[in-house]
């Protein structure tokens, strides 16, 4: 029996980029806490497979196929969710892309792609959902930042810039929407075993470096984001605003 402050029964939660990885793990955990999860992705097959898997586990899951960089598609999808599934109680802006290229070699098109997928998407989907939450006087928006919102490493400069902006956009959303009853916060994952990071986890030298730099001496498992996700989607966080909760094994605490 969960504490009533963490009960998500009946709450509609939209998670962008949730066909796999961190997004799917958070969706599964939120559904386990009672939420009616709406998964999003651009690949119909992957999205349908993810929804089917959650339904097979007994959860209330549905699909919303749209590109988080397509303004018109976002608007149509959010309207459809609100009318067909119900008012969105929580939005997780989780979708993101990684392009590992040193800044000296980075072309403008790749820079723009990273900014669109990691930052503009947070604004566009956040604005569409907030336009419906604000009149209701309630809603939760959780942006997925990163340990790269605070620190940098070579070859991921565009991603780092975007994730740093996600941290401050979270504060900007907070100051404008908290007066209307919304809570806007972020989760900052450290290094997790995901498909996006396969090139890193399978590199023995990088794997050793991360284990050495992380006080917990290991990579995170996507399921370990569920606690922070349920907290930020639930009544337990009704007076938490503009914050980033880092789930990183301690790496940001360490020199
Ligand atoms: C990298 C990784 C990192 C983290 C991500 C999680 O190439 O260093 O992709 O960016 O995995 O930031 O928050």
Plain-language structure description:
The structure is a single chain. With 255 residues, this protein is an alpha/beta fold. The chain has one domain (4-247): NAD(P)-binding Rossmann-like Domain (Rossmann fold, 3-Layer(aba) Sandwich), CATH 3.40.50. The protein has helices spanning 21-32, 44-56, 71-84, 108-136, 157-177, 198-201, 204-213, 226-233; strands at 12-15, 36-41, 61-65, 88-93, 139-144, 182-189, 244-247. A 7-stranded parallel sheet has the order 3-2-1-4-5-6-7, with helices on both faces. The longest helix is centred in the middle third of the chain and has 29 residues, at 108-136. It starts with 11 loop residues before the first strand and ends in an 8-residue tail after the last strand. The model has no long low-confidence stretch (mean pLDDT 98). D-gluconic acid binds at residues 98, 100, 146-148, 153, 156, 159, 189, 191, 196-197, 200.
List the helices and strands and how they pair.
Layout: E1 12-15, H1 21-32, E2 36-41, H2 44-56, E3 61-65, H3 71-84, E4 88-93, H4 108-136, E5 139-144, H5 157-177, E6 182-189, H6 198-201, H7 204-213, H8 226-233, E7 244-247
Parallel strand pairs: 1-2, 1-4, 2-3, 4-5, 5-6, 6-7
Helix pairs in contact: 1-8, 3-4, 4-5
D-gluconic acid binds near residues 100, 153, 156, 191 and 197.
CATH class: Alpha Beta
Secondary structure: helix percent: 40-55%
Q: Return the domain count.
A: 1
Quaternary structure state of the chains depicted: single chain
- The CATH superfamily title: NAD(P)-binding Rossmann-like Domain
């Amino acid at each position: 029996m969960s504490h009533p402050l963490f009960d998500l029964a009946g709450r509609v939660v939209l998670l962008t980029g949730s066909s796999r990885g961190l997004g799917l793990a958070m969706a599964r955990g939120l559904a386990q806490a009672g939420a009616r999860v709406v998964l999003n992705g651009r690949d119909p097959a992957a999205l349908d497979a993810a929804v089917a898997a959650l339904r097979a586990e007994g959860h209330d899951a549905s699909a919303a196929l749209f590109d988080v960089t397509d303004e018109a598609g976002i608007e149509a999808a959010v309207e459809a969710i609100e009318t067909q599934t119900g008012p969105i109680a929580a939005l997780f802006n989780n979708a993101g892309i990684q392009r590992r290229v040193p800044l000296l070699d980075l072309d403008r098109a790749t820079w723009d792609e990273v900014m669109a997928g990691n930052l503009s998407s947070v604004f566009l989907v956040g604005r569409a959902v907030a336009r419906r939450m604000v009149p209701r006087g309630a809603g939760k928006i959780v942006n997925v930042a990163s340990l790269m919102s605070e620190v940098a490493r070579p070859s991921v400069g565009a991603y780092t810039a975007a994730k740093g902006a996600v941290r401050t956009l979270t504060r900007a959303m907070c100051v404008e929407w908290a007066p209307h009853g919304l809570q806007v916060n972020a989760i900052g994952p450290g290094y997790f075993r995901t498909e996006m990071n396969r090139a890193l986890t399978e590199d023995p030298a990088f794997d050793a470096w991360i284990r050495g730099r992380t006080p917990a001496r290991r990579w995170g498992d996507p399921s370990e984001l569920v606690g922070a996700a349920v907290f930020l989607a639930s009544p337990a966080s009704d007076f938490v605003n503009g914050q980033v909760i880092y789930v990183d094994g301690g790496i940001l605490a360490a020199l």
